[in-house]
Amino acid sequence: MLVDNLRLFFGLYRHPARAMGRIVDEGSLLFGAGAVLVVGLLMAAGGVIPMYATMRAQLEGLTRAPGARAKTPGVPGTATSPAPSPSPADADDEPDGPPVRVPHASPQAMIGRTLTGITSMSVVGTLFGLAVLYVPACILVLTFVAPVGSFGVAFQRDYGALLACVLFSWSAAELPFALAGLAIPGVAWLARLGLWAATALVFAVFMVMAIRTVFGVETPPAVGATLLGSLGLLLAPIAPFLASPFILYLAWQYFRGDIAGVQWSFGRRQSFKRHLHAATLNPRDADAHYHLGLIHQQRRQIPEAIERFQKAVEIDPGEVDAHYQLGRIARGEKRYEDAIRHFGEVVKRDDKHSRHEVWREIGCTYLESTSFENALWAFEKFVTARPHDPEGLYLRGEALSALDRKDEAAEAYRRAVEAADTMPAYRRREVSRWKKAAAERLATSRP
């Protein structure tokens, strides 16, 4: 287990996007937490060692023996002048017996204990900040900028996977610069600031890949969640108060069901992938390859997804779902002939596939390849089957507009706006982009 997780950890330096998917499937939260603690200690040591040396040198300068002063012969108080004999009165004031020594810690030990306490708080605070502040903040931001579901659903479903990626990513981003800080302990503060900026940049890049992998979102929402999620770390100063045993006990009593749900969800995700891989050992199981392809596609690991879908089609040429996904990928890569070929295989076997959405995909492929007559033909089939779909109505208007049929295009845009307005409340956010696009096209088409 340790060796496998180390491979995942160092894999982030070679193929970070691929490594994120493997961390979600095979990574250990315990290993990730341990990596954060170890790297945090190395980082703290890089700052504490020169601090300790400086403080010790200053202390030794303050406590230097007075015998280092210049010696002047015959001057009282110097090393060459005889020590005055005590007077009888002074002798009576001296206590009987040997002097009593009060035990006390050395100044060096006090400095060491102080710096050790600071280091421990810093390392634990980093782990606490990532797990309790940063990851939930990223999920919260993502619920506002991408269709990932409500915060409660997304948290219980994806918190464990995202936390594993965050722990591995933070450790991998900080490790090279922590070692550099140890190798050059006396580095200037400006250079340390540069190292910190470099680690923040590397961590941000890793986080964008992690969010894309876990949630399957585009790059702009992932960047927004990465940056805005950092605002959650502003609550870090209250971390010592939240670490109170009383508060931790109450939090455990109140949230232990949610914590168990997160652990169960993360474990189920990993076991599901393992079972699918085991199912692919059956040379006739096309379904297992198809579902593995869907996982890779959701994580935007397109080469791996294509390989799985093609394997499913080789096993079962009638696997229309795999053909459909291969067509969508080919369209996204602007391989329009391949896309039409795969969509044709779908229509030949089931022209109502995916609630007639195969016709919308065919229309989009023709529209993007500037075959407008064929695009309109496909959109007509889609709108006939789903006359109140805002996206289909808007795309039909685009095809009509490209053919210079302005009045019919304007009517299609108006119908798209009306269809979006009459959608149920829970779908209005989903179709709002088509309503906005249709309204803009209507506004620009008016004289």
- The whole-number mean of residue pLDDT values reads 81
Continuous helix count: 19
The number of distinct β-strands equals 0
Gyration radius over CA: 34 Å
Secondary-structure element pattern, one letter each: HHHHHHHHHHHHHHHHHHH
Structural class: mainly alpha
Q: Which residues form runs of ≥5 with pLDDT under 50?
A: 68-81, 88-94, 100-105, 107-120
Percent strand equals: under 5%
Q: Summarize the biggest pleated sheet.
A: none
Q: Helix amount, in percent? A: over 70%
Q: What shape does the CA trace take?
A: globular
Distance between the termini: 69 Å
Question: Could you characterize what this model shows?
Answer:
It is a single chain. Among the domains are: 2-59 and 112-245, no CATH class; 355-447, Tetratricopeptide repeat domain (Serine Threonine Protein Phosphatase 5, Tetratricopeptide repeat, Alpha Horseshoe). The longest helix has 39 residues, at 107-145. The protein has helices at 2-14, 16-26, 29-62, 88-93, 107-145, 151-183, 189-215, 219-229, 239-242, 245-279, 286-298, 302-315, 320-332, 336-349, 357-368, 372-385, 390-402, 406-421, 425-445. The chain is globular. The chain has 19 helices and no strands. α12 runs antiparallel to α13 and α15 packs antiparallel against α16 (372-385). The protein is mostly helical.
